Backbone:
């Protein structure tokens, strides 16, 4: 899997959600990917 795909899957599973969220919000997903993908690419 690519870095992007790995982080996309974890976000879809709810890792990007706020504590009171019951669904995956696209805004949280985009923010998560925008933060985590560049961090992982640096490693």
Residues:
């Amino acid at each position: 899997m690519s870095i992007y795909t790995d982080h996309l899957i974890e976000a879809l599973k709810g890792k990007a959600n706020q504590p009171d969220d019951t669904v995956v919000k696209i805004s949280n997903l985009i923010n998560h990917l925008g933060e985590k993908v560049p961090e992982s690419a640096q490693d």
Q: What stands out?
A: The chain has a mean pLDDT of 93. The chain has one domain: 3-42.
